[in-house]
Amino acid sequence: MTEAVEGHVTTEIVMLNPETVRGASNLTSQEFLNQLMSKLGGKNPEETGGFQEAPLAYDAVWALALALNKTVGPLKAKGRRLEDFNYNNQDITAEIYRALNTSSFEGVSGHVVFDAQGSRMAWTLIEQLQGGSYKKIGYFDSTKGNLSWYGNDRWIGPDPPADQTVVIEEFRFLSQKLFVSVSVFAGLGILLGIVCLTFNIYNSNVRYIQNSQPYLNNMTAVGCMMALAAVFPLGLDGHHVHRKQFPVVCQFRLWLLGLGFSLAYGSMFTKIWWVHTVFTKKDDKKEKRKHLEPWKLYATVGVLLVIDVLSLMIWQIVDPLHITVEKFVREAPKGDLDVLIQPLLEHCSSDKMNTWLGVVYGYIYIYLSLPP
């Protein structure tokens, strides 16, 4: 127990002014103490009840005397006297209370002043247990907000203990190894898309390529490359981009994914749709070829692309994406009881994020669920 309480700090009201100030009673604190000791006639102060509180009682009497003295003039102006006081007289009582509450003077216990509730605002003595005994390490004057520190405090360890748990905000970022790995695979996918696109353009005059609608193949390749390219802005966070530029990255992610999906899936969906339409018609071969008109294929992809562009534009104008910070459960690091880690994660979000995602997923679901 002795080891546990060593170094703890206590506070209590100052009952004897530590400064040599001659107050309203024309006595310093030391002169008052000498007079009090002489009145005791050699008795042991520790065995005398109320000895420590004597300065407070002395100043309380002076505060009452000064307050009564201040009420004489105001009461006389109202045609009243202190001698008329009784416990049923509210006017005189209020005047005495007002005078007492506004009292301010130097006493043997320190500066005497009262707060709005009538409580004494005294100095606070700060002590610390050092080696089994209390040592004065400072004073605090609440009336002036002044702290007097002696600098003789001693602590176990290099620094004083924290007065509160320190919360350190720590942003969590994407693993750079994971980002680089996924980026490499995305880059290889984009490179493969470029190879396929080049092959398709170079062999566009080949009959088999012509029959497979090369322009739709090109759009599929471009859409896949755009979707793969979205990996790069999706991996960017506060570790790479300043917070001011982050909303631009958010919009870039959205547009790459949206347009990439519309081009890639829209062109594949269109090819399947029209192939299904042609080969389920009970017409002759000429009629089948007639149904397979290229502009209808491109128009179908264009409609899907226009819907996507319009929805993204409305989203960006009405409720643009911005950076939001998500807070997770605080973590306690090992070996430090005075510190907590507040994990933070940056997100791209908007005020009505769920509504816009519902709109986008809704029309995607509609043309995903259309029969081939």
TrEMBL record:
Q: How does it sit in the membrane?
A: Multi-pass membrane protein
- A single Gene Ontology CC term: G protein-coupled receptor heterodimeric complex
Matching entries from Pfam families are given as:
7tm_3, ANF_receptor
GO terms, molecular function: G protein-coupled GABA receptor activity
Which keywords has UniProt assigned to this entry?
G-protein coupled receptor, Glycoprotein, Membrane, Receptor, Transducer, Transmembrane, Transmembrane helix
This protein's record includes keyword Glycoprotein? yes
Fetch the InterPro entries from UniProt.
Answer: ANF_lig-bd_rcpt (IPR001828), GPCR3_GABA-B (IPR002455), GPCR_3_C (IPR017978), Peripla_BP_I (IPR028082)
Keyword Transmembrane helix listed? The answer is yes
Q: Which residues cross the membrane?
A: 178-203, 215-234, 254-274, 295-318, 353-370
According to the entry, every stretch annotated as the G-protein coupled receptors family 3 profile domain falls at: 185-372
* Similarity annotation: Belongs to the G-protein coupled receptor 3 family. GABA-B receptor subfamily.
Descriptive protein name? Gamma-aminobutyric acid (GABA) B receptor, 1b
